[in-house]
Structures are given as structure tokens and as C-alpha cells.
Amino acid sequence: MAAKRPTIYDVAKAADVSKSLVSLVLQDSPKVGEESRRAVRAAIAELGYRPSRAAANLAAGRTRSVGVLIDDYTNLWFVDMVRGLHATLGRGGYRLSVVDVATDDQAEDPVESFLAMRVDGMVVGMDPPHALAGDGLPPIVVVGTRDLPEAPVPAFDSVANDDAEGGRLVARHLVGLGHRRLGHLSVGSGAARVRRSAFEAEATALGAHVHSTGWDGAASDEAGYEGAKRLLADHREITGLFAANDVLAVGALAAARDLGLVVPGDLSVVGYDDTSLAAARLVSLTTVDDLSFEVGERAGALLLDRMRGSATEPSSVVLPPALTVRGTTAPPR
Amino acid sequence: MAAKRPTIYDVAKAADVSKSLVSLVLQDSPKVGEESRRAVRAAIAELGYRPSRAAANLAAGRTRSVGVLIDDYTNLWFVDMVRGLHATLGRGGYRLSVVDVATDDQAEDPVESFLAMRVDGMVVGMDPPHALAGDGLPPIVVVGTRDLPEAPVPAFDSVANDDAEGGRLVARHLVGLGHRRLGHLSVGSGAARVRRSAFEAEATALGAHVHSTGWDGAASDEAGYEGAKRLLADHREITGLFAANDVLAVGALAAARDLGLVVPGDLSVVGYDDTSLAAARLVSLTTVDDLSFEVGERAGALLLDRMRGSATEPSSVVLPPALTVRGTTAPPR
């Protein structure tokens, strides 16, 4: 090991007091007498001791960490949300730890794991694999539209974009461009279901026809590719396609190419989430910006309130999404 | 809250013993007498108490968690590595917690944060932002080729693919296809530097000319796009382009398209990492498979040994990478 940094033990020894007393001084405890306080502070200055937050937090029985639960690192929707969480929780002195249950061995309830790590709070960014209930849970905020268990489990604080409004925005965009024969690719998440039914209802109300297809699994490049290939082969009249998220939409773009369809000339394609994948210049996907950063910021603020004990009733925040028009949508030719 | 699960306190009460004694029984401690043990076990059975691993681990002074440090969630190279870590550490009863310093507020040394979370071990998947030195660090394994501080800090266990061999594989592939005028896009990481110098040396030895360009920042779609656009405009003779990773390569594909170059007819492009981005059907990028899953598996095994105290000298594992040929490379026309 390199030259050692002075530790709390060195300070205790130099001040001729116990380690616990040094801890109390570091926490500004009123229990410490003036003489001991002065001796400890002199030792800290003399040794150049830098109290680690780790030690201070352990002494105070906190870890100052927040666990974030997601279900797929390769679906990049969560990246801006985590940045938003940092914007508020980081300022509040908390650090985030992200666990992806999809890469996991599933041997243990991830909630139990966070408890083992002694997180002070949790952010749930997926349909929870188990009921979020039981003793000793820290404060929890749910981000995104999620399939949550019904009562008698408690309501949680939640922050999401308005997925129904997002679905309607896509319907209005495609129909507004002149598309009347629409396709939709869905998957088995709570958010996808909301996007689908709002898209179908709005498109139908605007005089368009929608053929939807979906499966119960997770979104993947392959699911988007295979789903779009089937849908476009069965319904060659489709000129506008809405996929429940960007990952599916990029799979659909490859299906269109392999079917000889030019995007957007022959087929317009829209995703959801406005991830870095959609923004990549090679992809340049029209998509719905679900305000992931703002969702994270608001979720972080709610969680801070709750961890400080100042929040009361669970609150549900819903933010209005916006359409990001890029290169994959145009009027039908 | 929902119907409460029985807790360790309920068990203690039913067995008329202390909570600490229940803990000792759960840990199979030899300190507990037969009578107390039987009373506790009867209470556990009667109440249907399920000891949480959290409680057991806390009692044993462990968190059974491993911290993983990366520097960019949007560069998907780490996903398979984390899966590999899970394959060994998950079996060993450990859970992973991934922290991305790029989304972070940088207010605190991430190593300190992991200490605050009381991780039992750490995996470092980036050029470390600070010297990995100091008191009380848990066992650490470095994954990937990293810029590590020189002595006197200690050597760490490390697992990486052979980035020099990967660079040579790309040179042989492009020159073997008939390309003699090559370009290279680099960035400011330890791994990128090794890939670059091996690629340049091998291509030159094989009779090709290489124009390299790079910048000191992180890999991004924009860096790949702008770098490739400049390089290909300045050197219109280039027919084969190697980018230091898949993210840069996808940016380069967009630059080629915007310059009117057909891939692979006019320009062959190769990435590095074999991420899900490279495998997406729309991208179908030729790249180097750096065995991220196996790197994670081996790193997890080394860390397990070290956390169990059975490892001795630091060891360096280097795995041979392989070329994954997809749709972005072909002979020059």
C-alpha cells in the first residue's frame, strides 16, 4: 500500500481519547466536553486528518446511498433519468447504486439486496418483480408508468411522463402527415400498454386504421425486427409505424430495409423515450421525449423529502411528454 | 403497509430469548445451547419466519455486495461484463451495484462511496479517477486495459482482453480484404491507446498506410461523426476505417453516409467491443469481440478468491479477442 493517510485511530491516539469520542466530535455532538473537543481538533489539524464521509455516515447509522432498480441496461431510457436523480440526490449528499435485474441471477429479491446494502431510499424503474411491501422498507419512489400491485399494499410516490398523451401525440403526428394505415408494435410492460391503447383510440378517432402486434416479453432489437417484418408483410398498406420504444423502433427500421422499404419515403417510423440510440446520427429516429431527466429530478426531490421525513401523503407527478421529430417520419408518397 | 411478515423480533418474543440469540442461531453459532436452539427453531417454524439475508449478513458484518465502477452507461461494452460478473459472484452469494461516474456529480470520490455502502469488493471498469490506495480498501479487480498509476501503489488483480492483439486482428482483416489506405479514430483511454499503436504497427508492417486521428475525451456518437468526417475529407484515399470502439464506429457510419460513401462498397468500417449496438440489425457492424462476458466471469472468480482470503499474489489474466465479421467490411471496389 502507498503512504498511509491518517485514520480516525491515529487521531484518537494523538488526542489520547477513544475512537468513539473522535466520532462524536466529527458529528458535532453536544455530548463532548470543550477540553476533549479542543484536543481532538488539534490532533486532526496536526495530522492533516480528512474525515471520510464513509466514517461519518457509518457513525451516524446512514449509508447516504439510494438504490435504483431497472430491468435492462441495453434499453437506454434510464440513463437520463439517473442523471436527473443525481441532480437532486447528489446535491442532497446521496449516491446512487443501479442494479439491473435482467443481468441478475434472480436468486434473490432485489429489494432484499438493497436492504442488505442499507440504502436509505429506493427508486423503482421497472414493473416490480415482487410486491413492494414488508417491514423495514426505506422510502420508495416509482418512476415511469408501472404495473403495481393493487391494494392492500400502500400507494407510493411516483413520477412519470404521461404515456397516454405520448401515444396520442404520435397518432396526431402520423395522421397529420397524411398517414391513414398505421401499425403498432407493443411489448409486455405497463407503460407499453398505456401507450398502445391511447395511440389506437386517438388514431381511430382521427379516422385512421391501426393494426397492432405485440408480445409479452421485453423490448429487443430482435422483437422489433421480427414483429415489424410480420406486421408489414401481413399489412402491406401500412405507411406509418409506431413502436412502443426506441429499441423496438430500431429493429423495425432494419425490417423495413430488409423488405425493401425506404424510410421515410415508403414507411414512417416513430419510437418512444428519445434515448441516445434515437439521437445517433445513423438512426435519427422520430420519437417521444418522455422527459427522463425531469422525471429523475422530480423523483429525487420527492425521495429527499421522504428520507428527511417531511413528506406526508404519497404524491403522483405526471409530466407532459413532447414529440422529437427527426428523419424517420414524412408524408406518405 | 400490507400484512406484516414475521420479524426477528417476533421470533425472539415467541421463543422468549433475545434478538441477538436468534441471530446466533441463524448463523449456526456454536455458542448457542441446545435448548435455546430448539426453542428458536420451533418459533421460526410456528411463525413461518423467513430469515432475510439482509439480516443474516448484517449480523455477520457483511453486506455481500460488490461495487462496479464504470464511466458511461451509454457505451454498452460493460453490459456483458456485468453479466459475467453475475455468473460467478451471483453463485457466490454476492450482489452487484453499478455506479456510473459520468452521470455523477463528481462531488465525492466513488471509492469513498463504495466504502460508505460497505461493499465487500470492487470491480473497476474504467481508468480510475483517483489512485486506488489508502486504508481499509476492500479487494479490487480491474477489468479491461486501464491507465493505472505507477508504483508505489500496489498491483491489482486484473482481467482484460488482449487489446494489442485486437488491434492487429483488425489490421490483418482490412489489409487481407485488399485495403491499403487506412484510417483510425481514437480516444483518450488506456485501452484505446493500446489498440491504436498495435493497429498502426501491424498495418504498416503489412504494407498499408494509416492516418490516425483522435481526441482526449470520451467516445461518443458525435466524436465518431466529426472525427470521421474530418479524416475522410482530408484523406479521400481511405477505404478502410477502424474506430477504437463501437460507439465511435456508428458515428463514423453516419459520417460516411453524409459524405455520400456507401458502406462497405466505398468504405469498410470496423469497431471494437461487439456491443448490442454493433449487433443491431440496422447497424450490423464488423467489430472485435473482446469477450466481455468471459472477462467478467474471470474477474468475479478472482474477486471471490480475494474476498475469501485465498488469493495471494495479484494476477493478470489476458484473454484472446476474436473478430466478428458483419456487414460493414468488404474488399475495396
TrEMBL record, chains A, B:
InterPro entries, A to Z: HTH_LacI, LacI/GalR-like_sensor, Lambda_DNA-bd_dom_sf, Peripla_BP_I
Superkingdom per UniProt: Bacteria
Keyword flag Glycoprotein: no
GO molecular function, one term: DNA binding
Keyword terms: DNA-binding, Transcription, Transcription regulation
Pfam families for the chain: LacI, Peripla_BP_3
SMART domains: HTH_LACI
Keyword 4Fe-4S: no
Domain HTH lacI-type: 6-60
The protein, known as: LacI family DNA-binding transcriptional regulator
